[in-house]
């Protein structure tokens, strides 16, 4: 304390006053005596260490009443706290400038740490110690952590890039570089910054960790309610730190609520960053909805598995990036369970994930899994609203959006159907909670204009036949099982499948509002309910519990929205090979589903010597093929 006071006495009052008048936005020039004192005393690094220990004694040992006696000591000893804060701000500014040496960086980190500790002590607001510009500058020091961890900033060129340079030797410019090299391989040509040794990197990393711990300790007690923009800025810096050291964090967020300051030392960088985000989402800092919305926005690159400056990985996704994604998913679920007001922001986050996912198979799969993991933890009401939004997204103009919707619906259908909470789920959303709505979205995409969407939807639909979920199997049986009744006149030679279960359909007349879209039969008001074959009376096709999909009669020439098997028959004649393959696999799944012992039946009839069969397979060849093969008679 005495050493710091002697240093402050060498600062002129005019310099301190001008620094405060500038609101810490500009650095006034130091006089020659003070500047030489800073250089001779190693940027006051030893004094900053001793002052930090002095502050820890007041904070940890709880002298007085939670450190309140410190300000009494300051007043009694005529200690100029304004001069101290001005000196700390000066050291922070000089240590964050481009070209600063290791000693200046060390002094900047220690100065920011001491400033956070001053704010942690109670009654600091009475002395107006908090200043938003200085606080933001101290938080910005954490941005340099990753850059300092790179060690030497010397250019390092990969062997492939070196060979390319040799080939292009003599040219004025080099327009191409190896795509496998990272951005860090090609830094700026300026060598203003000092190269760091491994010992110096390790030393600065420890100081950065202590600075982050001091910031988290400050957020536990000091509120940022007075500055909403400052809370946003802190969220952005902490979200960037969640990617650092993600492989060292286990992702256990349940212990955050009872985590004390002493336990912060046991958390890695990513754990401390998430702890800070959890504290900022509390009502202590105010603006809960807006802060959580900013957290979801800043965690979006983690969930999209972007690296560096929001870039896509050149090859496969690395393990640290996948772990950062898993931790972000767990944290979003933690926020959703502990703060009900976060549901609106999380729904917006999911919508951004669905529309901004990278169009690569590995990225689509991982992001779809993240979306489904969050959806499964949602209450029935918000979940139904998201499914309703998926139905709109499945009709979007972009092919990628429609294809990604199919991926999400397929994953949701593989999970058990949730039990709907009738009290918290609005009646107009209740139908979307059922798997029948998801099946309707899937079947509608089987007739999509894009071949890639058609093939994915048909493959996903065929996979539904292997599920063990009784609800899905019951719905599928309603879709594909033919209806018993008289044969249509134009299909006299139709042979029914042996041992196939026929059913009788309940015809329900539905009246739809002109402004409504795709409402289910659960919300419709039946006018009459009689058992009759589906082909007994002509006219409007009956409705089913999903979007625009009618039950399957025997007629194979029905439109896509009225018959599933007739749709698959046309998809088997599609011009694209991938669609034809998917349709044939779906038809095989239907046969296995309806008649599991169909092989025995086929074998029995094939062994009957009294019958000769002629097999034509017109749909197994593309429409452009002129010559189709007659497989001939089977003896």
Summarize the entry for a quick read.
By secondary structure, this protein is mostly helical.
List strands and helices in order, with pairings.
Layout: H1 2-9, H2 13-21, H3 32-40, H4 45-60, H5 69-76, H6 81-95, H7 102-120, H8 132-140, H9 144-149, H10 159-167, H11 198-221, H12 228-241, H13 269-280, H14 288-304, H15 319-338, H16 343-356, H17 361-376, H18 380-393, H19 399-414, H20 427-433, H21 435-445, H22 451-463, H23 470-480, E1 506-508, E2 529-531, H24 564-571, H25 577-594, H26 598-606, E3 614-616, E4 630-633
Antiparallel strand pairs: 1-2, 3-4
Helix pairs in contact: 2-6, 4-7, 6-7, 7-8, 7-11, 8-12, 11-13, 12-13, 12-14, 14-15, 14-16, 15-17, 17-19, 18-20, 19-21, 19-22, 21-22, 22-25, 24-25
Task: Describe this structure as you would to a colleague.
The protein is mainly α and 635 residues long. Helix content is 52%, strand content 2%. It is built from 26 helices and 4 strands. A two-stranded antiparallel ribbon has the order 1-2. The chain has a two-stranded antiparallel sheet with strand order 3-4. α6 packs antiparallel against α7, α14 packs antiparallel against α15 and α24 (564-571) runs antiparallel to α25 (577-594). The chain is elongated. The chain starts with a helix and ends with a strand. The model is unreliable at 151-191, 485-554 and 611-635 (pLDDT under 50).
């Amino acid at each position: 304390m005495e050493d710091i006071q002697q240093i402050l006495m060498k600062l002129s009052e005019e310099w301190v006053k001008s620094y405060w008048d500038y609101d810490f936005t500009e650095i006034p020039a130091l006089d020659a005596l003070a500047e030489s004192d800073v250089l001779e005393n190693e940027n006051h690094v030893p004094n900053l260490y001793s002052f930090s220990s002095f502050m820890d004694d007041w904070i940890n040992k709880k002298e007085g009443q939670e450190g309140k006696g410190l300000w009494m000591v300051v007043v009694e000893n005529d200690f100029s706290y304004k001069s101290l804060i001005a000196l700390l701000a000066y050291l922070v500014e000089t240590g964050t400038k481009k070209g600063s040496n290791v000693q200046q960086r060390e002094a900047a980190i220690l100065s920011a740490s001491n400033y956070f500790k001053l704010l942690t002590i109670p009654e600091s607001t009475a002395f107006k110690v908090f200043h938003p510009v200085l606080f933001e500058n101290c938080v910005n020091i954490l941005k340099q952590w990753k850059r300092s961890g790179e060690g030497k900033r010397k250019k390092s060129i990969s062997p492939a890039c070196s060979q390319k340079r040799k080939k292009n030797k003599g040219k004025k410019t080099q327009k191409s570089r190896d795509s496998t090299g990272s951005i860090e391989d090609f830094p700026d040509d300026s060598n203003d910054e000092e190269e760091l040794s491994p010992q110096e990197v390790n030393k600065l990393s420890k100081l950065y960790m202590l600075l982050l711990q001091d910031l988290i300790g400050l957020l536990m007690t000091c509120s940022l309610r007075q500055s909403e923009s400052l809370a946003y800025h802190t969220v952005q810096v902490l979200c960037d730190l969640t990617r650092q050291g993600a492989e060292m964090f286990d992702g256990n967020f349940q212990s955050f609520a009872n985590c004390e300051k002493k336990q912060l030392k046991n958390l890695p960088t990513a754990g401390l960053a998430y702890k800070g985000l959890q504290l900022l989402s509390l009502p202590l800092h105010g603006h809960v909805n807006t802060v959580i919305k900013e957290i979801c926005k800043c965690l979006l690159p983690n969930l999209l598995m972007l690296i560096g400056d929001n870039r896509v990985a050149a090859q496969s996704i690395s393990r640290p990036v996948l772990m950062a994604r898993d931790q972000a998913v767990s944290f979003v679920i933690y926020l959703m369970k502990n703060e009900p007001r976060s549901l609106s922001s999380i729904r917006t986050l999911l919508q951004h994930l669905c529309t901004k996912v990278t169009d690569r198979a590995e990225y689509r799969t991982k992001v779809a899994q993240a979306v489904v993991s969050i959806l499964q933890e949602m209450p029935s009401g918000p979940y139904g609203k998201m499914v309703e939004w998926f139905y709109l997204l499945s009709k979007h103009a972009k092919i990628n959006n429609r294809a990604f919707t199919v991926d999400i619906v397929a994953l949701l259908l593989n999970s058990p159907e949730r039990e709907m909470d009738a009290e918290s789920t609005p009646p107009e959303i209740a139908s979307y909670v059922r798997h029948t709505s998801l099946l309707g979205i899937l079947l509608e995409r089987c007739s999509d204009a894009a071949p890639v969407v058609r093939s994915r939807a048909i493959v996903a639909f065929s996979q539904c036949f292997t599920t063990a979920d009784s609800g899905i199997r019951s719905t599928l049986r309603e879709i594909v099982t033919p209806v018993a009744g008289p044969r249509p006149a134009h299909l006299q030679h139709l042979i029914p499948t042996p041992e196939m279960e026929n059913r009788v359909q309940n015809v329900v007349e539905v009246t739809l509002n002109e402004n409504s879209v795709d409402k289910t039969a659960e919300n419709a008001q039946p006018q009459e309910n009689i058992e009759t074959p589906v082909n007994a009376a002509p006219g409007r096709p009956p409705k089913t519990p999903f979007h625009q999909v009618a039950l399957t009669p025997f007629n194979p020439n029905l439109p896509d929205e009225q018959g599933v098997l007739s749709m698959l028959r046309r998809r088997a004649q599609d011009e694209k090979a991938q669609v034809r393959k998917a349709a044939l696999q779906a038809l095989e799944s239907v046969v296995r589903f309806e008649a599991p012992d169909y092989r025995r039946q086929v074998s029995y009839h094939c062994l009957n010597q009294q019958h000769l069969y002629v097999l034509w397979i017109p749909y197994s060849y593309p429409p452009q093929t002129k010559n189709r093969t007659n497989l001939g008679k089977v003896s």
